[in-house]
Amino acid sequence: MAQNCCTHEGQNVQCPAGLPPGSGSVKYVPGGTDWAVPGRGTVFVPQTSFPACTPSQPNAPSATPPTTPSTTPPTAKPTTPPSTTPSTTPAPSGTTTPSAKPTTQPGDAPSSAPRYPVPNIQGPQENVLEAKPLNQPDSAVGAVPPKPDDAKAVDQSIERLKKLRESEKPQVAKAPPASACGPDVTDYVLGVLQMIQDTYKSWSDAERSKRCGSLYGLGFRAAWDLQGFTPSDGEDYMPEIFFQRAAPNYCAIPKDRCGATVAFFGYCVHAQVVNYVQWGLMNELCGTQVKGRIARSTRSVFSDYSAGQEVMSDLGADFNGSLDLETKKRILKDIMDTLVRRNQDDWYKMTGTDCALVCDQSAAQPWLENFSWGFQWGSDDEPPETKRGSELKKP
């Protein structure tokens, strides 16, 4: 090995100033080259040129064998790089630094290693970057909104989840059932009974006497009825009862068995049977309950509906009083359960009591709320007292 020879890109070159023989370049870095120096790790050499080193036989063999360059680079760099001769590395854009081509002696094989230029690094280098604490907000992206309190955050999360579920709610049409009772009219019927009681109290004694007398007078085709519970409301026969229209194909089907039914206090009942709750209340208000029972029994002696009419008449009579609707509803439910058990054999002889209680109440509700509920009491020439379902007092 020639004296003062180092290696650069696979060729023998004169060692940069301050580096011992056997040193070798490792890689290009911004502004120069890193060199592996025996015993010293890696040393930075600023951009310069490296003249060729001509091999020659030394007069005496060296006592020290060649040192293998270290491959473990230390983390520190020398603060003051040694001065060197002009660079063979391509100069940054805009400069005209000449490059010296190493001289190749006979017998030396040309190097096939490519010469890559030092990349032109844009922006700040790592020695000028400033570290910031992780919890320090960056003012360049604007103010950081304050963290909401836990209760508000939970409410906001629930609201977002609710909107998401509503937007993703599948619109799946329900298959119509084979058998279904009519819609549940319990609250609406109780609202009409309260309407009858309040209206009766508003009448004068003469008006009350006239109305009570009409219950047993002659010549009245429709002296009394709940609005919508009888064919006299505009239908030719009961299978076309109004409540079948509440949710077509989902309530009161099939028409020939369930078309005239409604759900009342958890039971499927023929609508004209439920109509008798008004008969019981009117007789209770007029003090003619005994006469009313006799009239009802005489009319329905040969009817399968007599048990149901009796139960409904008793419920109407028990409705009268000053209790609130919610309390009345709870008491009347217990009374009806008792009366149905007592008349079980006759009760289930009535048409429609076996219709399934599977009416889609949510589909029927808009119709029920918009329906004109009310009652007729007196001459059929007088208009009925009515209110929309949404205006009725309900439990």
Describe the structure.
The chain is α+β, with helices and mostly antiparallel strands. It folds into 2 domains: 1-74 and 82-87, no CATH class; 186-391, no CATH class. Helix content is 31%, strand content 12%. It is built from 11 helices and 10 strands. The strands form 4 sheets. It has a 3-stranded antiparallel beta sheet with strand order 3-4-5, with no helix packed on it. The protein has a 3-stranded antiparallel beta sheet with strand order 6-9-10, covered by helices on one side. Strand 9 and strand 10 form a beta hairpin. Helix 8 runs antiparallel to helix 9. It is rod-shaped, with a radius of gyration of 52 Å.
Number of domains: 2
Q: In what range is the share of β-strand residues?
A: 5-15%
- As laid out across the biggest beta sheet, the strand order is 3-4-5
The helix/strand class is: alpha+beta
Q: Cα-atom Rg, whole angstroms?
A: 52 Å
What are the defining features of this structure?
11 helices; alpha+beta; 3-stranded antiparallel beta sheet; single chain; 395 residues; 2 domains; 12% strand; 31% helix
Question: How would you sum up this structure in a few lines?
Answer:
By secondary structure, the chain is an alpha+beta fold.
Secondary-structure blueprint:
Layout: E1 5-8, E2 11-14, E3 24-29, E4 32-37, E5 41-46, H1 150-167, H2 186-202, H3 205-214, E6 224-226, H4 255-258, E7 261-264, E8 267-270, H5 271-274, H6 276-286, H7 289-299, H8 306-319, H9 325-342, H10 344-347, H11 361-370, E9 372-377, E10 385-388
Helix pairs in contact: 2-6, 6-7, 6-8, 7-8, 8-9
